[in-house]
# Entry
Amino acid sequence: MKAFFDSDLWWSFTRSPVTVISAIVAFICIAGAVLAPVLAPHNPFDLASLQLMDAFKPPAWQSEGDASYPLGTDDQGRDMLSAIMYGARVSLLVGFAAVIFSTLVGVTVGLLAGYLGGKVDALLMRIADIQLTFPSILVALLIDGVVRAVLPRETHSEVALFVVIFAIGISNWPQFARTVRGSTLVERNKEYVQAARVIGLSPLRIMRSHVLPNVMSPVLVIATLNLGFAILAEATLSFLGVGVPPTQPSLGTLIRIGNDFLFSGEWWITIFPGVALIVMVLSVNLLGDWLRDALNPRLR
# Structure
């Protein structure tokens, strides 16, 4: 731990006020989402506790507001602050899971393509090139639509969360694969890899134990930046009505619900979830930008 605080990475972090603020904001967003059952004033998804008489209450600072609902309530009487905290849990869960999935697929493909080369490299990279010609959100919509058409209607809500994670994750693996492939092409010709071959280590062990640790720096940067995109992609899918089920609403679902009441005066139902989504994604992206610069030796 002491070595980390003495490292160049920590020095770079402490010398960037924007990065420090972004890290604090990201920590607050993640902590608020993870600890929502403990910190949230209400459980917005407990139907027994909802009161329709409390619907459309404005934020607490307005004349008709209620202090027990700091950010107001929606059309069902749900506390908006609690709904945002619970919704952020779903958005972050989908974001982290999708990034982990795309990282595993992309790093594996990139290592195989870069280390083996030849026809394997050509085949895998052509597949990645074909997928890169389609917008990621379009690929996610296509996968979600195919799964919904294949599976019975009664199982849609049960697998919706996993389908969204798979759809977003599988649409982003080419970025990881191309980056890892480029780094692997450089690493495979270095002396330590040649020495590992001479002593008879298998290609799998060489890739896992020697090449992989040396290509992880750009992967961490891409993963951080892709986390923000994955959260936005999930919000987009949920806003279009093809994301997580209404029983597990994310920030995108809350924005879609509030959009129906935006022009009738209940602006808080969509504005506050939208602001929460912007703040969360912006803080993550700023951290990714800092990490990219901090791990770039040319900028030191």
Observations:
- Residues 258 and 270 are 4 Å apart (CA to CA).
- The chain has a mean pLDDT of 86.
- The chain has one domain: 76-299.
- The chain is about 70% helix and 0% strand.
